[in-house]
Amino acid sequence: MIASPELLLFVLFGGLILGLALGFPVPFVMLGSSMLAGLLAIGPTFFHMMIMRIFETMDNYILVAIVLFVFMGIMLEKSGAAERLFSSLHIILGGLRGGLALAVVAVCTIMAAATGIMGAPVIIMGLFALPHMLEKKYDPALSCGTICAGGTLGILIPPSIMLIVYGPMAGVSVGKLFMAAIVPGLILAFLYGLYIVCVCWFRPDLGPSLSREERNLPFLKKIWMVITSLLPTLLLILAVLGTIFFGVAAPTEAAAVGAFVSVLLAWAYGNLSLRVLKDAFYQTTLVSSMVLLIVAGAFVFTGAFMVVGGGLVVEDFLLNLPIGEYGILVIMMLAFFGFGLFMEWVGIVPILVPIFAPILDQLGFDPLWAAMLFCVAMQTSFLTPPMAPALFYLKGVAPTGVSFGRHIVRGTLPFIIIQLIGLALITIWPQLVLWLPRVMIS
Prior knowledge:
Blueprint: H1 5-21, H2 26-42, H3 45-58, H4 64-79, H5 81-93, H6 99-115, H7 119-135, H8 140-152, H9 161-170, H10 174-202, H11 219-245, H12 251-268, H13 274-307, H14 310-319, H15 324-340, H16 345-363, H17 367-381, H18 389-397, H19 404-428, H20 431-441
Helix pairs in contact: 1-2, 2-3, 2-13, 3-13, 4-12, 4-13, 5-6, 5-11, 6-7, 6-8, 6-10, 6-11, 7-8, 7-18, 8-19, 9-16, 10-17, 10-19, 10-20, 11-12, 13-16, 14-16, 15-16, 15-17, 17-19, 18-19
């Protein structure tokens, strides 16, 4: 090594920050800074190591599930299932104060369990639900905050694509991660709903209930609407998660089942055509290629980090801090949150997880519990500018007159506090995370 580890780490992260600040694509910035630091550390041998790490990443069978889950989410979006869900739930819940916002949270929760991605629920609800909520005199900030917060559940509730990437990086079973994420995701959804009910109870003008005439449908018709909109999506969720939880299939095979069922669902709703399939294949290729390219770049970046001695530097630094094991855990959580302010999860997970996983093992923390803490911390940062992907997704599809600062940013602030409360709950009571995996495994 021709330079000190500290200098090489400065080159590695300095190049990363500079490249991102100049607006270059994330995977190429990772590869470029890794190459520079690796060449300074061990010379031309790093080229061979870089190629081998990329092949090692792409040879991981579990990553095939990313392509299949992305396709499933896109087909579900094109099937019109989300719009049907919202149309039925807003009739059922519309009589309550804040009923439309509760319907948004319910749809986002169900869509999260059926797609595994964040963007789709935010965009769909922004296009379909937000104009309807504004038309019914809902507070724009509450409406925008509900959609953004509900949409972020997609990165946590399985089949989360983020957890699929997280598992191999931490050496943890993806199936166990899926089981561990269910209760924290449902806790956050419940807290969102509880906040909406409370704030609209004391301030009815923020979320007025629908008039009796607007929801005056025969009881049997309401039941039929719920059955035809909710049951098919629940069957899709059962087809994916049920096969994983009961040991029938691994995540990759379950993703294939889900992709097939999503095509059947689009056909059942009358929205399947060659054009729809062509668009779905194209979007799947586009999104999956982006995700996998960033994963490969981040895997090389992590390899360069280890080659220059960064793992030992970080490990020695953290383990020698006079703050105890829980203080170190908090620093790790803050690192995930801080990276989330400037990067998408697809760049954060492959960088930080391999660095922190050995330290967590030395500290004796359960990797499933730590994974949920890190994921919720990242989920919170996705509502916090400057990155805040959920906010920008909504701004891109919001009706004219919806202000980014006054409505979208301000509307998400209470939900950021709610997510921090949820994070505190699973921190104080680890069994909220660990109970389901232990029950299903035993």
